[in-house]
Design brief:
Two copies of one chain form a homodimer. Chain A is 75% helix and 0% strand. Chain A has eleven helices and no strands. Chains A and B meet through helix 6, helix 7, helix 8, helix 9 and helix 10 of A and helix 6, helix 7, helix 8, helix 9 and helix 10 of B. Chain A binds a DNA duplex (30 and 30 nucleotides) through helix 3.
DNA sequence: CTTTAATTCAAACATGTGTTTTAATCAACT
DNA sequence: AGTTGATTAAAACACATGTTTGAATTAAAG
């Protein structure tokens, strides 16, 4: 049993359970049971529960932000080469695509994204401040770029619209969870019932299966990105 | 000390603390200390912690939903009278306005709205199911109305866009909390710094004050509603 | 091989948390 | 005033939870 193995086991288990239950409703004993290690291991390897959360977030946010910054820089460089302002659509795409693509890269990533959504909704904490420290460069550049793209928009309105976009993305990433509101909304609605009815008739799949997916994600991470970007771009330019 | 007084005290205190800290991080002893009553009172009057949360939500959701349904029915009646489809803008307004207006009707209401946002983000629970039971009639009618307003939109896309709008509203209502992301986003950005700079020069108000408000809410609940509705309408019609 | 360092483990620690119990107090009714 | 029911309060209950401790085990170094 080596240190890298134990730490990774704990981080993976924590990611999964924290994403599903949130920080306060997840105990160290649950995490360590999931990881198959002793509860003292958390304090030995990470120091505290909060530090564990910090580590869970940090190991993922760094590569995700690299992807985001790269894409954003690419959009800006492209616009500069053409002597034009960056397009709002391209900017929102740089904002949305890395997150949703990352989310669909695996179960762990999916949990992580859900965890970020949760963490952003918590009261201020050391972890949240840490999260913002990582996000700062991207947010600065993103807002600056949006200002260039939409120069006629007041600062307050630009910020509000960006904020609404952040909210939308944060919420969209919560789709990771089967408890998600969309599934329940669909279940409540006549529209949902009709869709289920169609699937039943057409595909022979059990009537419950399609109800879990807002979009056919088997081939449409890109499609989801497009639809979210469409919505946001229209809203930013409204 | 009569029963109505004690119950109300507990409900108000719970609303406040649950909104700020979430269910799992709020203890009954904290609530009862805030309410100035004994911890046993919770179990005496409400039966359990979870039942308390249920009561906190129920006492507010019923009137809020009445307002929403009334507004939505009005939009539909108006369209019917004119022999037209309901407009997306009017529908989104009926969705957004009661919530944001209610939020700005007082500190308690503000806390309640924040609490709803939190509750929607929790794992499935009896309270969440209860919440959906209350929301069901509105959601059904809303989706049906949107279908009428946007008949060329596929069911999946309609549902996705509604879902994104729900997410946006849920997130917007989180602005109740000073820990809110927008405040921090602004603090991080150059745009934010400029705005602060302007306020300092122009109004004589301490430089910290404007940083807490995305929009001048002293006179602009209506303005915020308009901006959110603008964004959503553009997105729904994209 | 021996020694040192790292890791794991079970138990203990210090405290917390929702719930229950029971007696005292208050309120309402006759 | 006495009786009954409602309410409050403090203490106890039954566990839970993050953290610490010290011994045992494993790994690494010389």
């Amino acid at each position: 049993m080596n240190r890298v193995g134990t730490q990774k086991k704990i981080l993976d288990a924590a990611e999964k359970l924290l994403a599903h239950n949130g920080y306060h409703a997840t105990t160290l004993r649950a995490i360590t049971a999931e990881a198959g290690v002793n509860v003292a291991a958390v304090n030995y390897h990470f120091g505290s529960k909060e530090a564990l959360l910090d580590n869970v977030i940090e190991r993922r946010i760094v590569p995700l932000n690299s992807a985001r910054m790269e894409m954003l820089e690419s959009v800006r460089a492209d616009a500069l080469t053409r002597g034009r302002r960056p397009s709002v659509r391209d900017l929102m795409h740089a904002f949305v695509a890395p997150t949703i693509s990352f989310r669909d890269s695996g179960k762990g990533a999916r949990n992580f994204i859900a965890l970020v959504g949760r963490t952003l909704g918590e009261p201020p904490s050391a972890v949240q401040h840490s999260f913002f420290r990582f996000m700062e460069p991207f947010i600065k550049l993103m807002l600056g770029s949006l200002k260039e793209a939409l120069p006629e928009l007041s600062d307050d309105l630009l910020l509000l619209r960006f904020h609404l976009s952040v909210g939308m993305l944060v919420y969209t990433i919560r789709m990771a969870d089967e408890s998600d509101i969309l599934g329940q909304t669909r279940a409540l609605s006549d529209i949902g019932n009709k869709t289920i009815g169609k699937s039943k008739g057409g595909s022979g799949v059990g009537s419950k299966a399609p109800a879990k997916r807002p979009v056919d994600t088997a081939n449409t991470t890109e499609k989801l990105v497009d639809e979210v970007v469409n919505f946001m771009t229209a809203g930013m330019e409204a």
